[in-house]
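Dear colleague,

As promised, here are the two records you asked about, laid out in our usual form so they can be pasted straight into your sheet.

NAME FIELD: protein one
SEQUENCE, THEN STRUCTURE:
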Amino acid sequence: MRFSAQPAIAWLLQVTRLSLLPVRVRGGVADGARWTLFPWTSYWRGTHEPRLQAAIVALGGGSVAGWSCWDLGAHFGLYSIGLARRVGPSGQVAAFEPNPASAARLRRHARMNRLPWLRIYEAAASDRSGSSEMYTYGDLGATTTHLAYEGEMRQAVCEPIPIRTVRLDELTASGELRTPDFVKVDVEGHAHRAILGMIGTLRKRHPILVIAIHSAVEWEGVRESLEPLGYAWTPLDSGCAAPWIGQDLLCVPRPR
């Protein structure tokens, strides 16, 4: 009988504070940032989503000092932390993460890196402000917790938890947040709702967007919102075609 040490090590890291040991991010968008050891070591090793990281590093010709950036679906904050370090104290980053376990780790990483211009919202960006439910399927540690998909039935197995939703147009209208220069959207099938909730801001500012597509419904909703605003999109992974499921789209306003 063969014994694998990997599951045992993973269990040990999960049940002790060893998972919170500080490390440094070795490359990518958050290169040099302080991080925690476990889980998702690909984050601090710099190997997570290399095309997306490269696209974000290239924003502004490699310099985004002073920019305002939003991270919708921030998880542990790899992109939020990286962007905040890059925009500097004259910039602003807003991170939105409704999963309480992920938001707690995000806040820890923000404290570790001393980034007061990074604002964290334990909420989901949506087309209305209020409350909703997140389906967890019993695993808050997963990256796939989500608001209900179209047609997804609420069942006990979903193990839903209550969450807050925010309409981003309200935050810019009130002056709580600056209008963004860049927005990353990775919200597990809810991007079309998040886009509707900031459509006024997009119409006013036309920021660069990167949107992760998880379903045909999500893609159609995103397309219907962005086309009238003059956006064009390109998949970061070449050779793909609509409805772009599983792809990240770089969306930029066409020259006027």
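NAME FIELD: protein two
SEQUENCE, THEN STRUCTURE:
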Amino acid sequence: MTEILELLQSLESTLAKRLDAMVVSQTSKLPWKAILYAQTLAWRIAELGRSALDNFEKDRLVAAIILTRACMETSAALWYLCGKLSAAVDTNCVGDIDDYLMRLIMGNKVDEVFPQAVNVLNFVDRVDKDVKDFRHQYDVLSEYVHPNWAGTSLIYAKHNEKTRVTDFGQNIRNADHTRQIGILNLSVVLQMFDLSYKRMTDLVPAFTALCDSQMGQ
């Protein structure tokens, strides 16, 4: 819990308050779009992570795990973005990255006026290629997020087979395992986000130089 708090405090201290596109690049909008999305992800995971930690401290485990899975998706989104920027830099080709950036920034699955959003499982599966069992941990958390056994009877109900009486309550069974699953995953995804956030610092200058060299993007 202390590690999570320290990660959140470090992230919160670096949240950007303003982004000037003309300072980023006077030639291409692409670097600004990449930074814009990364910064919105940072604000999002800071809010979600802080809320998850608060709920873990209050033993509101289902709420905490729902927020933790949202943190996992947010961290995976930044990992995905870094992968797109890295591929462009490595191949020295901007390619169709603007399409992806617009889908990331403006993506929507309801209103056809907006670009089609990237499926969140694409983010998760992209990370899983680099981080073993990332998708498995995501699926474990999903069992609590959905009203399945883990997110309902395991947490809120305790049945006595002999008396056939069921008692209800918050974390009425031994919740240590559930709590451990949630806290460990929150710690890991915050560390992963921090890693990607720092990676962006290295990628953006090279990506900007590439975009500036390929005018008209």
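A couple of things worth noting about protein two: The CA atoms of residues 90 and 176 lie 45 Å apart. DSSP finds nine helices and two strands in the chain.

Best,
R.
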